[in-house]
Design brief:
Elements (H helix, E strand, L loop, with lengths): L3 E4 L2 E3 L5 E7 L9 E6 L6 E6 L5 E3 L7 E6 L4 E6 L8 E7 L8 E2 L3 E5 L2
Length: about 120
């Protein structure tokens, strides 16, 4: 079973940048699509960005042009580069990998991003 560990969250001012990392255990990670989701207080968890095993990304409309997902299969790591951050980006960000809805799908523990002046 693949395990995921996120890092890189923190407090940033509006307009600032952060890079989140998600390190996976196990080389089988490179065979999976992976993604970032977020959950703000009082809201449901939703998709931020997802990247296929073949490096094809897709994004939620609210983050297009500001956030970039990428992966380094040699390091079993997926990244989320976040630029031009807004207060509404404040949330716990979760890494996800594996076939969605299957027994192989796994989640990280989450990392908090706070955008505030």
């Amino acid at each position: 079973q693949v395990q995921l560990v996120e890092s890189g969250g923190g407090l940033v001012q509006p307009g600032g940048s952060l890079r989140l990392s998600c390190a996976a255990s196990g080389s089988i990670f490179r065979l999976y699509a992976a993604g970032w989701y977020r959950q703000a207080p009082g809201k449901q968890r939703g998709l931020v960005a997802r990247i296929t095993a073949g490096d094809s990304p897709n994004y939620a409309d609210s983050v297009k042009g500001r956030l970039t997902i990428s992966r380094d299969n040699a390091k079993n790591t997926v990244y989320l580069q976040m630029n031009s951050l807004k207060p509404e980006d404040t949330a716990v960000y979760y890494c996800n990998a594996g076939p969605q809805g299957s027994a192989l799908e796994v989640w990280g523990q989450g990392t908090l991003v706070t955008v505030s002046s």
